[in-house]
Specification:
eight-stranded mixed sheet, 16 strands, disordered N terminus, alpha/beta, single chain, 415 residues
C-alpha cells in the first residue's frame, strides 16, 4: 500500500508536467464518467445525392437494427453532408427522407429511401454515400411511413462539430479552460463545445490550406503567433479543435473525416499540416488515413513541433495508478501500440517532413517532453529538416525565430 499511496500523487505531478494542469481528486469521477461515455459514443457521417430536392429539407434518420424505433436523425448541411450521433458498435437502418413541409413527419407524396444494407457504427467506419435519386420520383410506402411515425417526437441528440465555419482567433471557445475541458472531459467537450475544423476566412482554391493541430489540453488560439508569419497571399489558415482526452486513433479518424468533408465541398487538391506536441502523433495517423482514403489529395508538407514521438513516461503512471484513466493517456504511454502502428507505415509519398524540437527545460528536454522522445530515430530518418530551438514546450509557439523558420520551410527557403 505505501507504494500506491506514493504513486497516485506522483502520477498527478508527472501528468502536470505533460502540460496537463493537475486535477483535483474529485475530478477523476468526471474523468471516469467521460471515459465511459466516450467508449459508447460514435457517429454516422457521409453525404447524400439529393437530385433535384432541396438539401435543406432532407433528413437522414437512424432506426434501430430491426427498424422499429427512431434512434436519432440529422439534417444535411449546405454541402449535402450529415453527421449523426449514435452508439458505438450498434447497428442501424438508415433512411433518407424529404420533409418538404417541415413538420417532422413523412407525409404522403414525400420521397424517402431505406438504405439497402444496415450500418454498424464503429471507430474509423467509412463515410456513407447515400442517394435519393433512385427513389426521388416515388412516394414512400406505408410501411416506411409507419417506421418514421415517431420522428417528430424524437429529440435530436447533437454532436456540435463544425466544419468550415469562419471564425477568428478571438473565438470565445479558443481558451485555456476549454482546452483543459477537452482533455479531462472529452465526452462533455464533444457534446457541449463540439470543436471541428475552422477557417479564418472563406476558402480560396488559389491558396494552400495550412491545417494547425494543437496538442493535449490545447486550443486553436495557441497558433496565433505562428499563423501571423504565413504569407497569406499563398496560404490560408485552417484550425483543428478536438477533445484531446480521447483515444488518439479516434481523434485522427475524426480529423480525417473533417478534411474529407472539406474536400467534398471545395474540391481541395493539396494541403499542409502543422502540429504541436501530441497533435503530431494525431496528425501522422490522420495523414496516413487521408492518403489511403483521398488519393487525389496531395499532402505537401508536414511540420511537427515538440512532438513526443515515443510518448511520455508520466502517462504510464496515470494509466496504472490514477483513480480513472483519461483515454489519451493509453496511447501516450511510451512506445504504445498506437505509436508502433503509425511508425509501421511511412508518411505519405511526396510529403516533405520537418521536425522542429525544443530543449530549454530541466528534464533533458523542454520541461515537458524528453529529447529522446522528440528525436525518435524513425521520425528523424523521415525528416528532411531537423532543427532545435532554445524554447520550452509552450514558448516555442510564441517564438519569432520559430515563426520565421516555419515561413521559410513552407516557402522552401530553408534549404
Amino acid at each position: 500500500m505505501p507504494a500506491l499511496r506514493l504513486a497516485v500523487p506522483l502520477a498527478v505531478t508527472l501528468l502536470a508536467c505533460l502540460g496537463l494542469t493537475a486535477c483535483q481528486p474529485g475530478q477523476f469521477l468526471a474523468v471516469k464518467r467521460n471515459a465511459e461515455t466516450l467508449d459508447a459514443l460514435s457517429a454516422l457521417h457521409g453525404s447524400v445525392d439529393t437530385a433535384a430536392e432541396d438539401p435543406a429539407k432532407v433528413l437522414v434518420v437512424a432506426l434501430d437494427a430491426d427498424g422499429e424505433k427512431v434512434r436519432n436523425y440529422a439534417p444535411l448541411d449546405s454541402g449535402k453532408r450529415f453527421l449523426m450521433r449514435v452508439e458505438q458498435a450498434h447497428t442501424y437502418q438508415v433512411v433518407v427522407m424529404v420533409d418538404r413541409n417541415g413538420n417532422g413527419r413523412l407525409d404522403a407524396g414525400e420521397p424517402a429511401l431505406l438504405s439497402p444494407a444496415p450500418h454498424t457504427a464503429r471507430q474509423g467506419a467509412p463515410a456513407l454515400a447515400l442517394s435519393l435519386r433512385a427513389g426521388a420520383a416515388a412516394s414512400a410506402n406505408d410501411a416506411l411511413r409507419h417506421k418514421l411515425a415517431a420522428l417528430a417526437d424524437t429529440p435530436r441528440q447533437e454532436l456540435p462539430l463544425t466544419v468550415g465555419q469562419i471564425t477568428g482567433f478571438d473565438n470565445p471557445a479558443f481558451n485555456h479552460e476549454t482546452g483543459k475541458r477537452g482533455l479531462w472531459a472529452p465526452a462533455d467537450f464533444l457534446v457541449e463545445v463540439g470543436g471541428g475544423l475552422y477557417l479564418l476566412e472563406p476558402h480560396d482554391p488559389k491558396r494552400i490550406p495550412v491545417l494547425f493541430v494543437h496538442g493535449a489540453g490545447g486550443h486553436p488560439g495557441e497558433w496565433q503567433t505562428l499563423a501571423q508569419g504565413l504569407d497569406r497571399s499563398r496560404y490560408q489558415v485552417w484550425l483543428a479543435f478536438y477533445p484531446s482526452g480521447a483515444r488518439l486513433e479516434r481523434i485522427a479518424d475524426m480529423l480525417q473525416a473533417m478534411v474529407s468533408s472539406m474536400r467534398a465541398r471545395t474540391g481541395l487538391t493539396q494541403m499542409i499540416v502543422v502540429a504541436h506536441s501530441m497533435g503530431g502523433l494525431v496528425s501522422r495517423g490522420m495523414l496516413q488515413g487521408i492518403a489511403a482514403a483521398e488519393p487525389g489529395l496531395r499532402l505537401r508538407q508536414f511540420i511537427s513541433i515538440s512532438t513526443p514521438w515515443s510518448g511520455h513516461s508520466a502517462a504510464k503512471y496515470g494509466v496504472e495508478f490514477a483513480p480513472a484513466t483519461v483515454p489519451s493517456w493509453i496511447d501516450m504511454q511510451e512506445n504504445s501500440p498506437f505509436q508502433q502502428a503509425i511508425f509501421a507505415r511511412p508518411l505519405p509519398a511526396g510529403t516533405d517532413y520537418a521536425l522542429l524540437f525544443s530543449y530549454a527545460g530541466s528534464n533533458g528536454g523542454d520541461g515537458v517532453v524528453s529529447l529522446a522522445s522528440e528525436l525518435r530515430g524513425e521520425a528523424q530518418r523521415e525528416a528532411r529538416l531537423v532543427r532545435g530551438f532554445n524554447e520550452n514546450h509552450t514558448s516555442i509557439l510564441r517564438s519569432a525565430e520559430v515563426q520565421q523558420t516555419l515561413a521559410a520551410v513552407l516557402d522552401g527557403k530553408d534549404r
